[in-house]
C-alpha cells in the first residue's frame, strides 16, 4: 500500500511540475535568474518561451527588450518596447527605455 501511495504521489507531483512549466511565469522567473548572472542569451531564450505562452505580457516584453539591448540587438529591443507601447500606450518605463535605446543607437 505504501508503494502504491508513493507512486500516486509521484504522479501527482510530476503533473504539478508539468503544469507549472506550461505557464508564462516559469520561464520568466528562469530568465530573471539568468539576467542576474548576465547570461543574456539564456535569458532571451526563456523570455521567448514565456512570450510564446502570453504574447501581450507587459513584463515579458519589457524584460525581453532589456535583454536584447544588453546584447546589442537594437532592432529586436526596439520592437519589444514598441509592442509594449502598442498594448500599453501610457507605460512610462517603456517610453523612457525606447528613448534611451534610440539615443544610444544613433551615437
Automatic annotation (TrEMBL):
It comes from the Bacteria. Pfam families: TPR_1. TPR repeats lie at residues 58-91. Residues 37-64 form a coiled coil. InterPro entries: TPR-like_helical_dom_sf, TPR_rpt. Residues 1-19 form the signal peptide. Keywords: Coiled coil, Signal, TPR repeat. This is Tetratricopeptide repeat protein.
Amino acid at each position: 500500500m505504501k508503494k502504491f501511495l508513493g507512486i500516486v504521489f509521484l504522479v501527482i507531483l510530476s503533473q504539478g511540475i508539468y503544469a507549472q512549466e506550461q505557464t508564462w511565469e516559469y520561464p520568466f522567473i528562469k530568465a530573471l535568474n539568468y539576467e542576474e548572472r548576465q547570461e543574456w542569451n539564456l535569458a532571451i531564450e526563456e523570455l521567448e518561451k514565456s512570450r510564446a505562452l502570453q504574447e501581450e505580457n507587459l513584463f515579458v516584453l519589457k524584460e525581453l527588450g532589456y535583454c536584447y539591448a544588453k546584447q546589442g540587438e537594437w532592432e529586436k529591443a526596439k520592437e519589444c518596447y514598441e509592442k509594449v507601447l502598442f498594448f500599453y500606450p501610457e507605460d512610462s518605463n517603456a517610453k523612457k527605455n525606447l528613448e534611451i535605446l534610440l539615443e544610444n543607437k544613433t551615437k
